[in-house]
TrEMBL record:
Natural source organism: Kribbella albertanoniae
Protein's recorded name: DUF2630 family protein
Domain of life: Bacteria
Region feature Disordered, mapped onto this chain: 60-82
Length: 82
């Protein structure tokens, strides 16, 4: 069971990792490719978290159980803009 607070905690951790990656890149500790690949993965994970929160909010708004919301696959979440 995932609640909104757990999702926000995950988002905070992903954002912190993003900042850490950028700092490591600036310090020369990692290369462009490594930073770019991990940032892309973080972006996908963040999109999935935000999508799950939106699903939960919508279910609550329409009297449904937010616990029935499920994280969607990256291919679905990333396909919204394409």
């Amino acid at each position: 069971m995932t609640d909104d607070n757990n999702i926000f905690t995950k988002i905070d951790a992903l954002v912190a990792e993003e900042h850490e990656l950028r700092n490591k890149r600036a310090a020369g500790e990692i290369g462009d490719g490594e930073e770019r690949d991990r940032l892309k993965a973080l972006e996908v994970e963040l999109d999935q978290c935000w999508d799950l929160l939106r699903q939960r909010r919508a279910k609550r708004e329409f009297g449904e159980d937010p616990e029935t919301a499920e994280a969607r696959p990256a291919s679905t979440v990333e396909g919204y803009l394409n």
